[in-house]
Amino acid sequence: xxxxxxxxxxxxxxxxxxxxxxxxxxxSATHTIFVENNPETRRETWVLHSMVASVERPxxxxxxxxxxxxxxxFQVVQLLIPQERDAMDVQASxxxxxxxxxxxxxxxxxxxxxxxxxxxxxxxxxxDLQADYRRMGVPNNLWVSTPANSEYRVCDTYPSExxxxxxxxxxxxxxxxxxxxxxxxxxxxxxxxICRCSQPLSGFSARSQEDEQMLEAIMKSxxxxxxxxVVDTRPKLNAMANRAAGKGYENEDHYANxxxxxxxxxxxxxxxxxxxxxxxxxxxxxxxxxxxxxxxESSGWLKHIKAVLDAGVFxxxxxxxxxISVVVHCSDGWDRTAxxxxxxxxxxxxxxxxxxxxxxxxxxxxxxxxxxxxxxxxHLEGDPKEVSPVIDxxxxxxxxxxxxxxxxxxFNERFLVQLHRHVYxxxxxxxxGNSQKERRDMGLRERTxxxxxxxxxxxxxxxxxxxxxxxxxxxxxxRPNTTPYCFKMWKGMYNRVEKSSPPRQTPTDLLTAVRExxxxxxxxxxxxxxxxxxxxxxxxxxxGIQTRSRNAPNERCxxxxxxxxxxxxxxxxxx
Amino acid sequence: MFLCSHFILTQxxxxxxxxxxxxxxxxxxELIKTPRVDxxxxxxxxxxxVEGTLCLTGHHLILSSRQDxxxxxxxxxxxxxxxxxxxxxxxxxxxVKCKDLRVIQLDIxxxxxxxxxxxxxxxxxxxxxxxxxxxxxxxxxxxxxxxxWKSFLPEDAFKDLESMTEEWRLSDVNKDYSVCSSYPPLVAxxxxxxxDTLRKAAAFRHGGRxxxxxxxxxxxxxxxxxxxxxxTGTNGRRCKEDEKLINATLRAxxxxxxxDTRTVSVAQQAKARGGGxxxxxxxxxxxxxxxxxxxxxxxxxxLIKLVEACNDQSHSMDRWLSKLEASNWQTHVKEILTTAxxxxxxxxxxxxxxxxxxxxxxxxxxxxxxxxxxxxDPACRTIQGFQALVEREWLQAxxxxxxxxxxxxxSNSKPRCEAPVFLLFLDCxxxxxxxxxxxxxxxxxxxxxLFEHTYASQFGTFMxxxxxxxxxxxLSQKTVSLWSWVNRPQEVxxxxxxxxxxxxxxxxxxxxxQSLLLWEGVFLRWKRSSRxxxxxxxxxxxxxxxxxxxxxxxxxxxxxxxxxxxTEEPLLQTP
Lengths: 575, 575
Description:
The complex is a heterodimer.
Chain A: E1 4-12, E2 20-27, E3 31-36, E4 44-48, E5 52-56, E6 65-71, E7 76-81, H1 84-97, H2 117-124, H3 129-136, E8 143-146, E9 162-165, H4 170-179, E10 185-189, E11 193-197, H5 209-220, E12 228-232, H6 236-243, E13 258-262, H7 268-283, H8 289-299, H9 301-322, E14 326-329, H10 336-348, H11 355-368, H12 373-376, H13 390-404, H14 413-425, H15 436-442, H16 444-447, H17 452-457, H18 459-462, H19 491-494, H20 507-531, H21 562-573
Parallel strand pairs in A: 11-14, 12-13, 12-14
Antiparallel strand pairs in A: 1-2, 1-7, 2-3, 3-4, 5-6, 6-7, 8-9, 10-11
Helix pairs in contact in A: 4-5, 7-8, 9-10, 9-13, 10-11, 10-13, 13-14, 20-21
Chain B: H1 5-9, H2 13-25, E1 36-44, E2 47-56, E3 60-64, E4 73-76, E5 80-88, E6 91-98, E7 103-109, H3 111-124, H4 154-164, E8 168-171, E9 187-190, H5 195-203, E10 212-217, E11 222-226, H6 240-247, E12 256-260, H7 264-272, E13 286-290, H8 296-310, H9 317-327, H10 329-348, E14 354-357, H11 364-376, H12 383-395, H13 401-404, H14 421-435, H15 444-455, H16 467-472, H17 475-478, H18 482-486, H19 489-495, H20 520-523, H21 531-568
Parallel strand pairs in B: 11-14, 12-13, 12-14
Antiparallel strand pairs in B: 1-2, 1-7, 2-3, 3-4, 5-6, 6-7, 8-9, 10-11
Helix pairs in contact in B: 5-6, 8-9, 10-11, 10-14, 11-12, 11-14, 14-15
């Protein structure tokens, strides 16, 4: 069924159903491609098969069969295929192609890894987690690197290198990790530390001396404090129910000097259903205001986003304002814990609000600490109950924060949307598998490319023009307002406007363009000054000029006399 | 609310005393039982607590800390919507709820003082006598460069129309307000229709509001008219003159649209009270469309519920969203915008003329006609043009500002004719502004300022309910116009939108609920700190100004150099 071609297909604009492009549909091994017939425009629409979430075929109409393709990043492509037979074939092919059963069928593993060997190898060394730990000041005299997990012996979902309190001896580490499937380790360090782990196997009465010593050691690694917070990110009721299964939460009587705090983030199943509902709300065609607000409320989505953000706020406050270390866990320690810890990091540390910083944070808190990407984001045909939008919620928390603190983030909304896309797309090897060990065993570094340098290369289009490294909002910790009215539906994710009518601009684009214009002019000036005595000037061929986002005609990039170029710039920028 | 912060900050302290003396000599003396109390503590949102002396004058509640550099409170009594008293021992507390939705608290030592102050405020803030209102006492502390009372005369507006078409004339049939008490003395009507016909048509329309010109669409010569409902009653009365009047606006063979802002059933019910709508039989060249904008009394209730929702202390997302929905405020915004888009669409896309009316023609009608002009006419999106629009479509058109704005969301008194009709209009403008952030010359500050001044002001602009009332009060002689103040260069600069780029296109806003937001600038203004958003705004201004300045200098330098080069080496000039 590969390399299928269907002609006279219509691509329907959902905002204006009467407008449609007529063209040819091609199915390749990795993409569905629609190419418009119009010889002047020949517009192409590409859909990566791994992004396809579902393909519906409503009842056939006299004009043909519709196919409605929903993508995993909430975009909808609607096609009208003249022959029902063809539509059924395309649907069947897409269904098969969008649900690979083996990793080897994924896009990133389907290309020759050695075509750009050097580039590939380099791409994986773009981020250096160890450097980030060093930036935080670990290892130091209180926290040390432990070899305990070097061959994933203690915990196969943790990274091989972990930082633990210096006073925690190897038996304590091993003992603690036996009492939890994932023992405490430290992903964030200032004076006070944020540590993460899974729930203890306490049941109703079990205890572990080593685990108690471990938590004691964490407290002692923060001189001057006499207790630590243990943050259980689950609703208390869920945590109690876990006790019956021999798991649960820390008994405050057994652990000296801990304060237990429940946050109430719901489990992955609740979140999966909730996201389905919010995406339905975003797609509603002509809802009344009542339908919309009711849908927003009954989806529960913003309530969950608020819970995740509240968890981060609690941890950040404890660390920054009270100077108290925090141990965070949920059930397994790879979903809600990852959310809470990474939100807290974004609030606490300006570095994580930069592009590179956010990449590092995702690499550390999610990728290296064993977030089950392939299960959660349905990379391979698997158990649908394992699927859940965990990192979606983290990215959305960052977006909600960027709405409250417009100058605090180096990146714009597009960056977050792009990150979200790549978590699902499998175009790069970064998010394949479910732990560091799995990725190592698959040899992903040898067989795929890393996403990070690609994003970095395109950073101009992800930059927030309002960001300034020396702005007050950029400094120190963020204290967001989490009153319900501060949360909005993320329109850029759940209700994207596919085509905007001409005068609708965003301030981001306008400001970026203004900045570019000045920069260009400066370049021209330098260029001109250099060649001024006698030579001919060749302005406008520099890189970066092509990536202009406003209504800047391309012709301005071509070779033109300087004086003309200046006039055009003036028209655009100065009113 | 500081109605005029420049004015307040530059007040010498002696003025305070003089002002007080002057007022006490007058009618207010007996109403002020305790003119001053020491040791009063003022608490307000986002500002430090201030202790000082509380003074009551005829029009202001003043708190002075008697220290330099400390901001004092100058609150117009007219801005007070409701007060609450509380006592703990002999310490009294007065909660002052303002019409601009701010809530402040005054802690007053001494029960008697507190009771006196409270009862004085109650009386002074609800004075019915128009002649005692502050605008008659206010003397401007700024230099009036251009008298706002003369800035937007109907004669001048008509000159613009005359330059575009000869089909209309200015009629003074209403020069003594006898034909229609809510119309201005001069109105634009079709050239072929004489004053006698107008008089007869007026007798057939609610409140004498015969169809008059609201907007002329230069692009295709189509027009928008507005009127009151026709008085058909239950037995289907007709009026040949009315039919003649509106048919005179149609080109040969063309059809027009009548947009009735009420639902069919509401319009039907109106017949029983003598009102009604245009029947197909008598108006065969017109197609009638009914929309569903609510009556003003329902809008007031909606405002009260919305403000209550914003003040809800619970942190529950479900509760917030369900209260927001139950308030129906956003539904009204959507409905009004939808109707305005419809009117604009008929004119611009269908190339048809439009007549808009509801019941009286002074509320929903004006919302629709003025918003349609924002959509269609780029001039209305400038600072001057927007003032002209407010003057033409609201003040001259007879929106009863005084009745509609005498109480806001907190008042305990039974509402009489109060309704946030104009506030909803401003909210809709804000929604369009937010969707087209670069197409308006003004920022939302201007809209907020207008909201404040419609409810309480030192200026006479929004006093009275019609042109006739304003003329009887002799406002243009006895009070200062808001426009005199707004049109000073420093104020224009404050209200300007740094992102503005003149855009001559029609702008079609999205009316999907997903695209409409709660207007934070008004409803959450005193609930959440806007510091970070303000900083972002400043940053935006900074970027644009810096770049413009930078660009200017560089360009000037380049030009000079080029001029030099051209004389030295003419070859460089060839393109």
